[in-house]
User: Fold these one by one.
Assistant:
Number 1:
Amino acid sequence: MKISLSVILILFFFNYSFSGDVNNDELISLAVENKYRKTNNKSRDKYRHPIETLSFFGLSREKKILEITPGRGWYTEILANYMRNTNNYYVAKYDPPQFAVDIITKIQNEFEKYFLKNENKFGKIKYISINQDYKIVSKKNEFDIVLTFRNSHNWLDRGKAEKIYSSIYRSMKKGGILGVVQHRADESSPFNYKGGYVKESFLINFIENQGFKLINKSEINSNLKDTKNYEKGVWTLPPTYRLGEKDKSKYSKIGESDRMTLKFIK
């Protein structure tokens, strides 16, 4: 997407901070195109469609936004940049981690160091905790938008999905939006979730049972090439390549997983 001269002049005038006079879709595009994102992260835009996904979820700088356990920060590089100077962007982290403790601790520590070091590029991030009971430590009715990308399979595998989704519900304002992206199993699968994949109908019913209501869904992140029958589950595909060099070219051609993109309201 080309950025108009008027947008460039507005950003320059406001010292590269975003102005409410700029179209929101342009603001999202600018955040996705920001030069500070890691090159390998940008290369995955073709699979994750961040502009379309964040627009679908109704991202807004005027709203208080919470991103749940962002891993190494693929979406954070975009969201933090988009939300900079608003004081409205929060990240929920495991405190303390309850599974894969060494790995999660390492990832979270590296995440915090990276975004603290690059605060002038991406903006300030506020943190809240997910405690040992998988409850979000926040005020009730605090957030306008909560986003979770590819986390649901972990919570389901550990029997903690009900706790965390009910805690997300508690943390959100009435009318707030929950955006969910998740690896999608075939509806004909003999399981509801396995190997990182989750049935869409199952997940919708599960989340609605916590009080939410599905208001829209999108095929933005679908991938018909994904056969979903791999030796190492979804992690066989990029970017993980759990099988190493074995059939790597084959999995590279498939690309990242087929994903559901769901929009709920409280």
Number 2:
Amino acid sequence: MACTIAFNKPYDVLPCFTDPDGRPTLANFIRLSGVYAAGRLDRDSEGLMILTSDGALAHRITDPDRKLPKVYLAQVERIPDVEALETLQHGLLLGGKRTRPAKVRLLTEEPSLPGRPAPIRFRKSVPTAWLELTLHEGMNRQVRRMTAAVGHPTLRLVRIAIGPIRLGKLQPGEWKQLEDFQIRSLRSS
């Protein structure tokens, strides 16, 4: 029987189960055999990962042709203006490839998130803002590259949703098994 879990990956944890350099990995938190990450989340990013023993489901989650939405909260340097937000929404060139259109929203309040063991870079003279971005693809370090390209480097990045699965109240380092209806909704998304 297949096993599928939602995991809140903490900051500074590699999205794999082994590391020859001894850095923290998924194995420090998940003691299930046969589950593998359906997609990646960089070491310096936090939030929702889905791990599964079902290869077909993993492919469905990661296949860019499926356009499964992934929602991120990004704390960026400075307050983006309308032009920067529109550029992010319409797509931009990254390494010669145009990103798909994204949904981008400037948040009016700082989101309620758990603390992080390493503080973000703080500069008294440079304000920060929070964006909610919904992407339908998964280029390498895409959110960070997109925000940097419009002059607003990402300081903190947290994925809060993959398709219909939301991070919810899951704390960093915690995981939970997905219910059958959640797995069905992932398959049909």
